[in-house]
Sequence to fold (243 residues):
Amino acid sequence: MKLTKWKIFRLIYVTAGVSFIGWMWFSMQATSNAYSFLAGNQSIIVSETKDLISFTPAIAYKAVFIFYPGALVDPVAYAPICRQIADSGYKVQLIKMPWRLATKGYNKPKALKLFDDSSKVYILSGHSQGGKMAAQFVYENPGLVDQLILIGTTHPRDIDLSGLKIPVMKISGSKDGVANITDVISNKIKLPSRTKYVEIKGANHAQFGYYGTQIGDDKATISRELQHKIVSTSILSFIQSNL
Fold:
């Protein structure tokens, strides 16, 4: 069969596209050590369904931490940070998004009735696109969330949350090439004036999770372990101070 220039171009284009998507999917997979945080013990019960991964303390808990993964990122990549929060006595719900896109599943917590226990304090958080859609959820569902924590995102950008009455914290990395500090600062007017900002020196975008490299990101100058330690310490301090 004779190949025309157009057919050759189309073949190269399709092959390149498939290869790129395959590389992206592989790069966004959780690292092998992230899976070790899924092991339950006497203190934490870990369960998994098609919709979420739950980390439930064996003792009574007052707050529920709900987390949205970044776009295309394997949710298990956030198991380390979720487990650290659960180990401190909070229930954690790590949401699995359709097609790994929070834009498609950000209303899942409401559909799954995760906010139904009025005796609990609910903290909503997310990384990157997950942070964007966590902000969107709070915007669309006033009164359901008690605290909002945004990680590695420039959002909210297209909505105004400056009038929020709940505590808000935003965590950023100085080496984040995807959600750069300049854009984070420029969107401050979209959040309440009392928002707590945490900038982690040397932290990049991908190291907020346990997965591979990300296009457009800068190279971190601190280890993933140190970055996670600072993130978890900041989150736990924020939660506790606002309970």
